[in-house]
Amino acid sequence: MDIKILVATHKNYWMPEDVVYLPLHVGREGKNDLGYVGDNTGDNISTKNSMYCELTGMYWAWKNLKCDYIGLCHYRRYFCFPSVSGNPDSRKENVFQKEKYEQLLKNNDIILPFKSKVSKKTVKEQYCASHYGRDLEVTRDVVGELYPEYIDSFDSFMSNRKMFFFNMFVMNKKLFDEYCTWLFAILFEVEKRTDISNYDTYQSRVYGFLSERLFNVWVAHKKLKAAYAMVENIEETNNHIYLHRLIRNLKYRVIEKLEELI
């Protein structure tokens, strides 16, 4: 399998040496060269990085990268084997390699992280509490206009209390291209209807925030056969926090398996 896993980064950092990983400097346009491939070549939206976050890297890959399978992770977060160690170096050794990706993709459409709870709120309530709710309403309007067959999936997801975070995945490149066509059609239209001139730096990342929710809508609607994997932050140095997250993730893994059997 020709697999490429984009490692979205904005700074020099440790990178896995396995052949599948492609360090990608997102928001490269106008920035110092880090020595990585930049998202500012060919057809690109690199200048929109402050609003679109890692999506500028996804757009670049959609338009310019050829491979059989493609995935996205972040310079601090990877799909990993679980580890009982809170040592960052130990976690680096547990980052998935090509062989594991091939094994999971053999009988599945997509590799996803386990879902996480959005506190005690629904997805919609959490978004509105953390960001500008009107942007979510505009997004729903656009989905209803461009892809009305997705509106039920959109509404259903917004009432959930768990979701996939981080925009992390691995899937067939043709499926990825289909997703990007859908996603960017929606986001570019939302951008036309949204005034973020008064947003601070954090809230200006609005299209990145919205994309995390839209990814969940798309996955649910497509009814894809998924393999689930743990995501670890290799930078975490607090053993208590790390072990708490490990136990939480393992608990979710057991719950997911039980739900499949019911």
The general outline is globular
Q: What structural category arises from helix and sheet content?
A: alpha/beta
Largest sheet: 8 strands, mixed
Oligomer: single chain
Q: Strand share of the residues?
A: 15-25%
- Could you give the distance between the termini? 34 Å
Mean pLDDT metric: 93
Work out the count of structural domains: 1
Poorly predicted runs of 5 or more residues: none
Please count the helical segments.
Answer: 10
- Percent helix, as a range, is 40-55%
Strand order of the largest sheet: 3-2-1-4-9-6-10-5
Radius of gyration: 18 Å
Number of strands: 10
The arrangement of helices and strands along the chain is EEEHHEEHHEEHHHEEHHEH
Structure notes:
- The chain has 262 residues and is of the alpha/beta class.
- It has one domain (3-261).
- It has ten helices and ten strands.
- The strands form two sheets. An eight-stranded mixed sheet has the order 3-2-1-4-9-6-10-5, with helices on both faces. Strands 7-8 form a two-stranded antiparallel ribbon.
- The two termini are 34 Å apart.
Strand and helix layout:
Layout lengths: L2 E7 L11 E5 L11 E2 L10 H4 L2 H10 L4 E6 L2 E4 L7 H6 L4 H8 L4 E4 L2 E2 L5 H8 L2 H14 L4 H8 L3 E2 L5 E4 H20 L13 H17 L3 E8 L5 H23 L1
Parallel strand pairs: 1-2, 1-4, 2-3, 6-10
Antiparallel strand pairs: 4-9, 5-10, 6-9, 7-8
Helix pairs in contact: 6-8, 7-9, 8-9
Observed structural traits:
single chain, 262 residues, alpha/beta, eight-stranded mixed sheet, two-stranded antiparallel sheet, 10 strands
In short:
With 262 residues, this protein is an alpha/beta fold.
